[in-house]
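Dear colleague,

Following up on yesterday's call, I've attached the two folding results inline so they're easy to grep. Please treat them as preliminary; we haven't cross-checked anything against experimental data yet. The first protein's sequence and structure tokens come first.
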Amino acid sequence: MLNNVILVGRITDTPRIKDLEDGTKVCNITLAVTKPFKSQSTGEYGVDFIPVALWQGSAAITQRWCEKGDIVGIKGRISTRISDVKGINVHSLEVIGERIVFISLKSNQEHISEDEMINETIDE
């Protein structure tokens, strides 16, 4: 069995970290990913908004270096879950980000080197 996904898109909002009760850090972002085809009715490319969860070190560096509108690449896996909402089973899907690559950062990019990112990732 294989569960891999690679996405390249823009972050739709400023990344924020949540500290869970057990001390685990998670950063939930949404990526706006352009569809690979044009709409027949409008002639424009559509966009999918894909939820991504980044954990621990990936969460920390994403929150530190990224902001709304930045372009990133995510390698990860798809995760599903079922939640009970007022007696109705609601299915949800998200990508668990296992690796993030910064493609185009609007700010901070002149202040960060690849070595800093690598060392920070390793240290987290």
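Below is the second protein, in the same order (sequence, then structure):
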Amino acid sequence: MSTLKRFFKDTIIYGIAAVLPRAINILLVRLHTHTLTSDKYAENTIYFVYAAYFNAILTHGMETAFFRFFTKEKDKGKVVSTAFISLFTSTLFFLIIMLFYSNEIVKYFGFAKPIYFQILILVTTFDTLVVLPFAYLRAMNKPIKFTFYKILNISIYTLINLYFLLYVPYAIKNGYFVPQFISNHFEQNSLVIYIFIANLVASFITLLLLSPIFFKFKFTFDKKLLYKMLNYGLPIMIGSLAFVTNENLDKLLIPKYLGKDQMGIYAACYKLGVFMMLYVMAFRLGAEPFFFNHAKEKNAKETYATILNWFTIIGTIFLLIIIVFIDVFANMLLGKEEYFQALKIVPIILLANLFLGIYINLSVWYKLTDKTRYGMYFSVIGAIITIGFNIIFIPKIGYMASAWATLIAYIFMTVVSYFYGKKYYTIPYKIKNIALYLFLSTGFTYLSFSFFRGNLFISSLLVIIFVGFIMWNEKKEIQKILKNDY
């Protein structure tokens, strides 16, 4: 099998691991918006925002550092055990401190009850400890096992959600069987806690099932190796925190300026923009180990360029299709019309996430040259743009400011990374083609959303024209792929 085809095959399998859980999560939006008021939905959103921040801190860039040194070091077991001991120690310290002082700390996080914060700490701990087992499966090219555990995790989460948010209220109301312990303690007016409990149970079971991987290697600890891994990974951690800020600061600022109701409405529509994030995540899971494993091949740079070209092609088509059928998706996933008022953020968020995916492609240069500090610089500046734009413009134009801030930050990061990459690790990207596809897709998206929304005939015609142009423009590349020339 050709290098490129193997990459796409693995990415499709990883894509199932990334897309299916998130797709189910998106489907759960309908359940959550149906059963929770907008202010409670906002509380659910805030919970996962803080989870993202804690995970970025606790993993301290060790996942990417693991891939880098797993391919460089001869003693693979030493890399695994050193990384694990580092993560386990810091995470255990975090768990003890946070739980011990949880009643005092919780007031700074805005949760209604300390138990919400305590569940968050436990979930974050479990999720951090499974980072390396999942990374190991990716490094060993075991996408099927990786996918199995990811799907199992979301399946458990979904079943518990359905049980407590749908079955139990219905059963209590209609006299059907519910275990006495559950019926006696069931909180009808605080259903959000059962979403957190579902998250906790799913994370704990996943950790139990993956824990045997920890014992495949002799526990050895190498201080010098840890220093090198931390030196590589800490800038990535700072970049990750900046990324989480780009993605989530809006959910913390909108309640302050506009109220929890508006944030709940914004967050629900933001989920539609996550469709593009699913695509980006699927790509990242397959691309990260691929970039490191093939860095020494003669045609590596040409392969990276081809991957970005096709990533952009598929992403721009995806962008246009989602906008063409945006009302269909909104009715299917959001349900309540009170959430529809924020649909205008969706095209902007989709485009922002597409630029994020391009940026992840471009990041190969600083990861392979061990200049991860540049990724930190770009992300931090992007976060500053996000913070400044949100604080200045949310009071003036509402939650649209948050959508525009995300897009502007990712465009900036993409452009700057490209020009710096040319200096340190030149890759022959097809910039003219990429820019053309982005321009056409954005233009067609604007036409469909602003002038032909609801007119599926004309909007679908725009998709056909766009796809037809791509096939004509890329006919030589398509022939190469079909002939297995890559």
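For the second protein, one point worth flagging: The chain has a mean pLDDT of 83.

Best wishes,
A.L.
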